[in-house]
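[Automated response] Your request has been received and processed.

Submitted sequence:
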Amino acid sequence: MSSNSARRSAVQAITTYKPEASPLNFYDTKPTDIFGCNVFTDKVMRERLPKDVYKALHKTIEFGERMDPGIADTVAAVMKDWVPPTSPISSTP
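Generated structure:
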């Protein structure tokens, strides 16, 4: 592809671009509705992880203790299950 052809293709791609979702209406949407919505917060961990796994993970996060390798698979599975479908890392289309 010549540089002229590549430039035309790039310009055409830019000028014909259509976003997949409608733009966010910042007048009707509160920042608290979207800020941190894709974060696996302490609240989410407490709700979704088994109590013993949550306590072990919390010790790692808060006190820097070594993470028990036995909880890693559980934490990973819960996080994978939790990922919101709108997240860029979601496996669902």
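Summary generated for your ticket: The radius of gyration is 21 Å. The longest helix spans residues 69-82.
If you did not submit this request, please reply to this message.
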